[in-house]
Amino acid sequence: MADLEKILEQYPFVQRDNLIPILQEIQDNYGYLSEEAIVKVGRYLKMPTAKIYGLASFYHHFRFNTKGKYHIKVCNGTSCHARLNTLIIQKIEKLVGIKNEEVTKDGLFSIEETSCMAACGNGPVMSINDEFYPDLTIEKVKEIIDSYKRLEE
Amino acid sequence: MLIDIQVNNKKIQAKKGETILETLSRNGIKVPTLCRMENFTPTGACRMCVVEVEGKSGLIPSCSYPVEESLKIKTHSPRVLKARKMLVELLLSNHPDDCLYCASNGNCELQDMAVELNIRERRISGEKTKANIDQSSPGIVRDPAKCILCGRCVRVCEEILGVSTFDFYKRGNKTAITTSMNKDLNFSNCIHCGQCLLVCPTGSLHEKTSIDIVNQMLSHDDTKVVVQYSPTIAASIAEELGYRSNKDVNQVLNAILRKIGFDKVFDSSFAADVALYEQSAELADRIKHEENLPMLSSCCPGWIKHMEQSHPDMIDFVSTTKSPQQIMGTLIKSYLTEKEEFAPENIFSVSVMPCTAKKFEAQREEMTHKGVSDIDAVITTRELLNLIKLYGIDIHSVAEELTDAPFNTRSSAAKLVSVTGGLSEGIVRTLSYHLTGKELGNLKITKLRGLKDRKEVYVKVGGQEIGIAVVSGLKNANKLIEEIRDGKSKVHFIEVMACPGGCINGGGQPFCNDEKVLRNKSKTIYDLDQKEAIKVAHKNSGLVNLYKDFIGDPLGEKATKLLHTKYSKRDVLL
Hints:
- The structure holds 2 protein chains of 2 kinds.
- Helix content of chain A is 47%, strand content 12%.
- Chain A has 2 domains: 2-58, Arc Repressor Mutant, subunit A, CATH 1.10.10; 70-151, 3-Layer(aba) Sandwich (Glutaredoxin).
- In chain A, helix 2 packs antiparallel against helix 3.
- The longest helix of chain A has 14 residues, at 138-151.
- By secondary structure, chain A is of the alpha+beta class.
- The model of chain A has no long low-confidence stretch (mean pLDDT 89).
- Chain B is α/β, with parallel strands linked by helices.
- Chain B is globular and about 75 Å long.
- Classes of the chains: A alpha+beta, B alpha/beta.
- Chains A and B meet through helix 3 and helix 4 of A and strand 7 of B.
């Protein structure tokens, strides 16, 4: 992970306030915070990794797993919640066989519950990679997920 | 400066700068707390300590609110009690209902509070926290379902030990306490010291008990069950056994252990003398050759694990002498078996320690010989008290007895090892003998005594100034090691104890958060040292015989094989 060192080099002052920007930059580059990255940041900032893990887990933004080839983000904002996104989330989890924050064994799908996606009028909403799917119903979700599965056959 | 405040319609005096809670407890008014710990800055997390203050609209957490002139406080008004009761009811709403089967049954602050607040029915029932019990550590069991998120373990581990195994994970109703990357404790940087389970208010953190296996072995006819107890034990359980607090109950304990059915009873103090003798010989050797100085102590297993994972560059500086527990274990399964013609496999060696990390130490690979471990089971002071209760032994009907030969002698230096600074004191006394062949003029080194977390002293031994540094509370060791790396420290010997105050405050000791009790226990040990005739390890007659008959010279071939060990770098998530 040569690039990780480059990210750290941009923060020559070893101080804890740099932690969040460093983690953000790592996630932007790698898509997630790996154990290896957390250990390196901990060593660099002289911080126990439990503290870094604790802090990063506080924010939904940070993830600790790789993303699948098709990264499913489901809106869990207030409005979508009111429109019963729980049922949608349950359906997705059933269809791909994993839970929130997990990745399928074949690396195809990953699920992430996010905060508001700002499409409240069209909730429940989800996105797969950069494609957005509004006005979801259980049937619609099945169709969408199946279409991605078919792409891989 | 004193100021007047009014509490429950009565005038009391407060000291300026105090918190309301401090004033109240000084005046004998108890306000319940769940997250507060003595000598820590308050966090105000649990809200159990709320009181009503006239003129304030909300209830005020007394632990973090400083007293002011003419405050009018109500500590147990209906409004306050209602709030406290509601808090406990909410904590209970997702708490497992298994008090009868809980390791902390009868010893649980949450349970006590439910009793105090007279909670007799379930008004709020929530979804129970589902979590796996982590049994992976040899000393500590963690049940996240019973965690009430008070954060005490997080703070002790960070602020006293400097290890930071735990932290809060996620937020809101998903908050949990977890280790780094959610690993099991045996993969984490946990040093198994047990300070967290001393402060845990519920059964979320408790020791892994070995009472069952000890009991089972006691009933095996063809197994010899031998027991050793740490020098700390006899000096710290008097009160629990119903004696006056500063009595050393050594001889009573021997009788009790025999009544329980142990075939042989030894005091690890003998092995502590051997450790002092061997370790000071090692120090003398290093001073003569001017290599690997300062020498770091090795008898605290928590510190050793911490050193292996966080300061592997210090491995060469650490004394290779085994801890008293392991020395006794080795001697039992070599010297004793040879002398009494037992097979080492037929001996079950139990050790009673004030420490949960000793359970970890006993199962280290280095501590086995031809596949037989030197110590088979370690029980803590608390488990010993349980065992005594289980066997229903009437403590006042037992006559005092002595420990078994050949390990039945000790010096008072061996007892000092229980308190921070005591190991150093014992080592300096014998170091003089090793370096010059003469005794140290003044055996009592006052500057090494007391429960301060860091002490440094220079002692003249044979024309040479020997620098000794003592730290307790592992966090202080980290600072000291930085100083050594920077070449700022010029001492020759460093004693490190992971628990603040030393073994008397170990993670296996009876629950107590009173510094006065600790000071009392250390006084018991110092008084003993004052009274006794043999104050140095090298004058312990049993030890002299052991070296003459069996071991040979300190640091010699047999000593190296039996009494020394090695350490290796540990790869854990720091």
